[in-house]
Specification:
single chain
């Protein structure tokens, strides 16, 4: 896409899509105000919900009058991808930083991300995140790439999406080159965007530490539908088998396992906790898993047999424990 204005050098355009986030967005805005990197603008797009968000953002704009702060509202609920796309088209910055309304940043997040983008000549920079429980704000652990996944990048993305939007900053030129986020995906739209960026030859850089607090188990969160998330991940990564710079054999193996894992989630899930569980999808998912590796009949039979017995393979590495120094700083 083309932007109507030239990018302002060094400016970070912060993009927040929001939906029924009155109880959270004030905390997100406070962490923006506390950033050590001061050259930013903010674009908030509310996805047709009504409440206090507009007044909270406008009060923030008055308090931060030295910054450009924009509030926009979709007339009908269109999903976070559409809201982000609306905000992207209003962005004036050289860089774009993503932040969900219920997440928060550490004070040095923007400074570290911009330094990484400039120093490594990267197109997208991301950090790991600290997961917190929604109601209690209990620290659950860290989510991000393992060292093995960094060494083997980007193959790990075919197994799990360890890049969190709220911990990611990228050059506005990425949008110009790659295009907007897919509005046809309600889940894993971020993973689809990362893989499209890789297809276009964009460079990713991970900067150490945890620079974001990511809220888990929020009732409105789409990611609570765990079976649907696993389905979406498998179907998204399937489209990128043969991604430049990857091993096709490795990718087919990872995608096959992703479909098998999705089948196991449906088999072993609890419909009372996950309304997206659908046993009717299991045969097609297992067939997809086998079709990608037709010579691995042994794997296919094991997957079906172990699923029936209820022996669940771990879908991803567990959340890493927090370093004591980090846990103390967040207490």
């Amino acid at each position: 896409m083309e932007f109507p204005t030239a990018a302002s050098e060094g400016l970070v355009s912060i993009v927040i899509p929001t939906y029924r986030a009155d109880d959270y967005i004030g905390q997100a805005l406070a962490t923006i105000a506390g950033q050590e990197y001061r050259h930013w603008e903010l674009i908030v797009v509310e996805d047709a919900s009504r409440g206090k968000t507009e007044s909270i953002v406008k009060e923030f704009a008055r308090d931060q009058s030295q910054h450009r702060v924009i509030y926009l509202r979709n007339e009908k609920n269109s999903g976070p991808s559409h809201s982000r796309n609306v905000a992207f088209q209003e962005a004036h910055g050289e860089f774009v930083a993503l932040l969900d309304a219920d997440d928060r940043w550490m004070n040095g997040h923007l400074a570290a991300a911009v330094a990484m983008l400039r120093g490594k000549q990267a197109d997208l920079a991301y950090s790991s995140v600290v997961m917190i429980e929604d109601q209690t704000e209990l620290l659950l652990g860290m989510w991000g790439p393992t060292q093995q996944e960094l060494d083997d990048f980007p193959h790990g993305l075919f197994s799990r999406n360890y890049i969190t939007p709220s911990a990611t900053v990228f050059r506005r030129s990425v949008i110009a080159d790659v295009g907007l986020w897919s509005v046809n995906l309600r889940l894993c739209e971020d993973l689809d965007f990362w893989l499209r960026c890789l297809s276009a030859g964009k460079r990713f850089a991970h900067f150490g530490g945890c620079h974001c607090l990511y809220r888990q188990n929020r009732p409105e969160a789409a990611t609570r539908n765990k079976c649907a998330v696993q389905d979406a991940l498998a179907h998204v990564v399937e489209r990128y088998i043969g991604l430049p710079g990857t091993s096709q054999r490795t990718c087919r193996n990872r995608v096959s396992r992703a479909f098998g894992r999705a089948a196991r989630f449906h088999l072993q899930g609890d419909s009372r906790q996950d309304p997206s569980r659908d046993l009717g999808k299991v045969p097609a998912l297992l067939f997809k898993a086998w079709k990608l590796q037709p010579l691995r009949v042994d794997y296919f039979m094991r997957a079906a047999w172990r699923s029936t017995l209820g022996s669940l393979h771990k879908p991803a590495p567990p959340l890493a424990s927090l370093p004591a120094s980090l846990e103390n700083s967040l207490a």
